# Entry
Amino acid sequence: MRIPGKQLDQAVVNGIINAEQAKALQQFLATQHTGPHFDFTHVLYYLGGLLAIGAMTLFMTLGWESFGGWGILAIALIYALVGLKLANLFASKGYQVPAALCAAFVVTLTPLAVYGLQQGLGAWPDDSSYRDYHRWIQWHWLYMELATLAVGAIIAWRYRFPFLIMPVAVTLWYLSMDLSAMLTDGDFDWQLRKLVSMYCGLLMIGLAFWVDIRARHNGDYAFWLYLFGVIAFWGGLSLQQSDSELAKFGYFCINLLLIGVGAVLVRRVFVVFGALGSCGYLGHLAANVFKDSWLFPITLTFIGLLVIYLGILWQKHEQQLTQQLHACLPAALQELLDNRQL
# Structure
């Protein structure tokens, strides 16, 4: 937790603490803060790390095909060894963010290594190249994805950096899309793909919640799983087609539920996508159902003001209501929510 210096100064002015205590508290918090935060040093860390990761994933060129399958595998393994060496070196010196980025770089090399192995063995099923892995949905990416999940789990268990869940979460998202291609034997079925994305997203959200509970006393290992789980679920849900106004209202209610879940778990990704879906439904009402009604904008304005009033009431009684709600929850979930609100 970081407290701005102005707030500490104001606490001194108000007589809450004295100047010596403020200085000691600021020094203590500086030593306790070990996680990543937004400053120029960390911007450089992530910029460099993501450039290296992107070079071996999104920005891979066809020139690498000239090395052949075994050459690609060998280069990927060499890069992985260098990445692990750097991760160990940085971790031993206390540079956790660079260590996490180097370890994540190793995980992102796994699809390339598997691709090279399949090419070398002559087991690659078509004329597609590795660069298509991040662009197209294909059933035969599954081998690369499953291997990446396995390597990601091992690396995350070894180094215990929350950022290592990012490549795992991205791979699960890819897997949710490629599963539909496998189920249809490569045929394009848009409706099935939307359903698979929606249900796989729900599974990822469930996995994220389980990880959140298990790791509640440690780092935020669930962030990336929540992010891509919500993207997969909300994307599949929002692309569903229906002429029923009742179904559209159900979609609106689900998005309101997402906002509520985000508020309870203190996860902004639920709130952001829930708000987008809710606004989309209200836009549908304004453009189609009530397009000729002068009463609809007025009613919506009053609803908005009512929501603001409810927010004021919640702010007044937040502590009492929060305590009452928390008392109804399991102990593990209470600890999770208490940690999130620190």
